[in-house]
Amino acid sequence: MADRWVTFDCYGTLVDWWTGMGQAAESVAGERGPELLEAYHPHELVLETERPIRPYREILVEGLRRAAAGVGVSLPAGGEEAFVGSWTTMPVFDDVGPALDALREAGWRLAILTNCDDDLIAGTQEHLPVVLDMVVTAEQVGSYKPDLGHFRAFRERSGVAEGDWVHVACSWIHDVFPAARLGIPRIWVDRDRSGHPPAIATAVLPDMSALPEAVERAAAGRR
Fold first, then answer.
1. pLDDT by residue (tens digit) across 6-48?
2. Which of 3, 9, 175, 190 is catalytic?
3. What is the chain written as a DSSP string?
4. What domains sit in the chain, N to C, each tagged with a CATH number?
């Protein structure tokens, strides 16, 4: 039997990005931390499109610096490193362990497609409840999602057959949309309640508690 694969985005899907980054933002901006984090998002997207590709840790630093300047927050000395320094301490969502265990028991292989550097995801993997079979990073492919480089690299490395691959992610922009472009069955774990159009997702879940069953249905072509 051919290998069956479930690929995941990591940060926001498996790891609680909002809590971890929010705490880091508050550590350098106090009560203005939420405002600073909100301002960071567009800068990250812009920095990810620049060429030649920036290492993700540089995006975290420069994005925070630009966000602080934009909202008038004076960072303390070394404060622009706050996101990098907290990266590998971000908490894993409670529903991740049971979901990944169930998928593994059902015979699925598990991989991460992430917009970060090799060393950053390596630190995060130490806290994940399951050992992943493959990790594809922006550093490896030389591009950032929603570019299709991660998906194409995974397909080439894994040799996965059509119908044996389901992608799972929280980010509509970075993951659900590009997976739809490639025709990969995709489960949108909409933890952020972002309001993006749900129709392009094969299935939409509020969290990962029902993920194993949704993966089986998606792989079988059933909504």
1. 999 999 999 999 999 999 999 999 999 999 999 999 999 999 9
2. 9
3. ---EEEEE--BTTTB-HHHHHHHHHHHHHGGGHHHHHHHHHHHHHHHHH-SSPPPHHHHHHHHHHHHHHHHT--PPTTGGGHHHHHGGGPPBPTTHHHHHHHHHHTTEEEEEEESS-HHHHHHHHTTSSS--SEEEEHHHHTS-TTSSHHHHHHHHHH-PPTTSEEEEES-IIIIIHHHHHHT--EEEE-TT-----GGGSSEEESSSTTHHHHHHHHHTT--
4. 4-16+91-219 (3.40.50.1000), 17-88 (1.10.150)
